Amino acid sequence: MTKVIDKNEVRLPFFGDRLSFVRGLDPLGLQNPSAQAYSYLLPGLNNVTGRLRSYSFYCWLLTEYARQIQTTDPKEQKRFVRRAEYILALIAAHADTNGVAGSLYALRQLNQGETSFNIGSATYNPDGSTTNTYWQYSFGVFGQYYLGSIRQIGLIEEPLDASGNLLGIYRRTSSNKELLISGEALAAAFDENVSPENKGLFLSCLRKGTIDLKQVEKLTPDFNLAHIRTGTEEHNLLLQLMLDLDEPANAVISQKSMRKATLLHVLRYADTHKSGVEQRKFTFYAYQAKGEVNHHSDDCLFGWYYYQLNEYWQVACTAILNGLLDYLQEREGPGWMLVQELLQESTKEITELLIQGEVIDSGDVTIAEALTANLDPEQVLYQDLMRAEGVVRMAMSFALIWQLYQQNKQYLDRLEEYTSSIGIDSKHDVVSFCRKFDRYVTLPVHKFLEEFLLSNIIYRHQYVAYHKIGGGSQSTQKFIIEDNHIRHIGNFDPGFTGPRIRNLINFLQDLGLLDAEGRLTDAGQLQLAQN
């Protein structure tokens, strides 16, 4: 039957939402190999697990949930966890403790002079939503930051119902011969460090949904996540946990202990560098050592060498994209430019800068000749390109890429073997590029620059950005190409990824093995002597 359209009625086909442009992350898709490397080398923690004592606290909290609430309703467990986390946030804000998520929200309340706090309204809005509360994620800080790491390390598990389906709640693991450190043991150790009076007060405030400043002050000594009491069972178990197998629950499958190896390397670095250990200082050291200790290859340190090598690569490439977009915007603003013109003009200016810097004599010399230049060390080139902009940044980034190839080509076989052995997707990492680099050595420099800009930067970014769109309406594109013309949309600054070393250092400081400046303590010396 024919449908008759009423007068003034309009029907249009639906084509889809208009694209909106967002900042996004990793515009060239080169950071994933780095992330795979540090995930392998430091399992059981991440870049947002700020305090080691949170591990024992959550084991204790889940134990108390089972005792106090006794329901398998995920909503009730989320409510219980969120209320407890808000109390912790108030304690952290009052004690000026860093590394406890939600404490900024609590600090704003304290700065406003509030002395009585409604736990219910701080954790949920009247309609049950969590926007503008202490933490937006529905399962709180636990669900967003800690759950994966604590489960991986064998402290919690997700139980099944009678039909074998996951219940959607979590419980601490029970003590058994397979686990050196269980959630049950850690919960009991945390409980020993909390007075019966403060335990009752904490749980009473949680149930009632109110807490005042005096109660916060009273709870602070026992529930301060930055303070692990030395000589207690909790301190001992948390230290053993860091030194245990990477995945204790899968000990039959894997005896890997990269976390312990990384921890000991960090302590040794602090022992031999009296200024103390810092995250990037350590990875720079691993890169310079090429993964060797006393002229012998060390699997763990070699992994950190690979990580930093790939970091230099992804930063250099992202800096070239950044510089190219700066150049495009400077030339055309929001207007269009022929892609070929952009490539030719930017290549010309990069070449001139490389000549001025005495890296090459002309754009016609081959890459093989360019590689004989006396370039600055990688760390210096990195620091220089991070200070530069536009074409200057691009020129320095190409110099860094050439230096990376020159200084690491002799290790390519070992690097390829390493990435393959731990399952790193290396199709676009630094090793795969260096393997292909031999085909470029006979090219003139200007030809190499043009090809690299087109294939490794422009086409690569387009591919990654289109892949991220999927079926959505948000695009991370930094430029648009139409009819062989290109237009600037946005930009993205280069930078290293966070390899979890900073949080490992925080954990070691919480345990008293490093001092506040990252220097080795007597307790740290003892651990090195024992391991």
Explain the overall architecture.
The longest helix has 34 residues, at 299-332. The protein is mostly helical and 531 residues long. The termini are far apart. A hairpin with a 2-residue loop joins strand 6 and strand 7 (296-297). The chain contains 22 helices and eleven strands. It folds into three domains: 20-30 and 305-488, no CATH class; 44-244, no CATH class; 258-300 and 500-530. The strands form five sheets. A three-stranded antiparallel beta sheet has the order 8-11-10. It has a two-stranded parallel ribbon with strand order 1-9. The chain has a two-stranded antiparallel sheet with strand order 2-5. It is 55% helix and 5% strand.
Give the SSE layout.
Blueprint: E1 20-21, H1 32-41, H2 53-68, H3 74-95, H4 103-111, E2 116-118, H5 119-123, H6 140-152, E3 156-157, E4 171-172, H7 183-192, H8 196-208, E5 210-212, H9 213-223, H10 233-243, H11 258-272, H12 279-289, E6 292-293, E7 296-297, H13 299-332, E8 336-338, H14 339-356, H15 367-370, H16 378-387, H17 390-408, H18 412-421, H19 430-436, H20 445-469, E9 474-475, E10 479-482, E11 485-488, H21 501-510, H22 522-530
Parallel strand pairs: 1-9
Antiparallel strand pairs: 2-5, 3-4, 6-7, 8-11, 10-11
